[in-house]
Design goal:
Low-confidence stretches: none
Strand content: over 45%
Order of helices and strands: EEEEEEEEEE
Number of strands: 10
Mean pLDDT: 97
Radius of gyration: 13 Å
Helix content: under 10%
Number of helices: 0
Strand order of the largest sheet: 2-10-9-4-5-6
Largest sheet: 6 strands, mixed
Structural class: mainly beta
Length: 113
Amino acid sequence: VQLVESGGGLVQAGGSLRLSCAASGFTFSSSVMSWYRQVPGKEREWVARISSGGGSTNYADSVKGRFSISRDNVKNTVYLQMSSLRVEDTALYYCKRFGSETWGQGTQVTVSS
């Protein structure tokens, strides 16, 4: 299992970013995928989940209505579209395959006020 996150950066509050996670080493199209985030000194927080076919999504209350998870099973990639970003969204963002404990290196999102 290999996961490579990208797309993070520095953005002003109210702005948008799209994160990508390129997956390999497993059958991506059969896998439920999730995004998590972590702030130093705090536990990793679940953000969003998408079913294997993409037809079902779930979100943490803290991001509902602002973030959107999607996937491309041809490109073996899962995305997280983040809008109306807040300072409290600042974190290292990771993707993860359900049932696996393998994590990528993450991508840093920093939201300035």
